[in-house]
Structure of Calcineurin B homologous protein 3:
Amino acid sequence: MGASQARTEHPYQDLMDKTGFSLEQIKNLQKRFQQLSGNKDTVSKEDLASIPALDNNPLRKQIITAFFDKRNQHENQVGFFEEIGFEQFVMVMSHFRAPTLKTSEEEREVMRKEKLRFLFNMHDTDNDGTITLEEYRKVVEELLSKSGALGLEAAKAIADAAMLEVASTNVPHMAPDDFYEGITFEHFEQILKGLEMETRMHIRFLDVDTTTMRCGKTTS
C-alpha cells in the first residue's frame, strides 16, 4: 500500500532512479522540455537548433546530434532517433548532472566515466569505437576555423600534429610506416586523465543549470 502510494506520488520514480535527478529537478527539466517542444510529446533537432545560447558554440552540431544518439541512453543501443521524448531527453541531460556533497567517490568515478563516454561519442561520429584522424580533424577544424583566427589548412595541420602526438603517447613503439587507427575510449580516458570532469560539464546551453537546482523534496 505504502509503495503504491509512493509510486503515485512520484510518477517519475523510475527516471529518478536511472538518472540521479531529484523529483524537483525532473519537474524543472519538464518545463524546459515543454518550452523547447512547444508542448508536444517530442523534440526534434530543429527545436534544439532554435536555442539562442547554441548559436555561437563551435560544437553546436555535435551537441545537438548527441541528444539523438542512442548510445547516450544507457541502453547499449546504436543509431539515431529522429525525435526524442521527455524521458530520452532527461537521460541525455543526466550526463551533465553535477555531484553533490553526498556523492561518494565511487559515484563520482561513475559520473566521470559517463561524461567522458558522452564526449567520446560526440567525436566518434560513425559509432565504430574509435575517433579517427578524419573525425578528429573535423572537430579541430570547427573549433579553430570558426574563431576567425585560422584557416582550414592551418586547422588541419594542427589536428594532424595533435593526432601524431596522441599516437606517439598511446603507442610509443610505432614504426615510422605504422598506421595509427585512432583514439580508443581507453586512450581518450588517458588523454583526459588529469582533467576534473565531474563539475565541468554543465547544461547552461539549455538555460538549465543543474548545479543550482534545489535537490530537496518539492513543496508543491
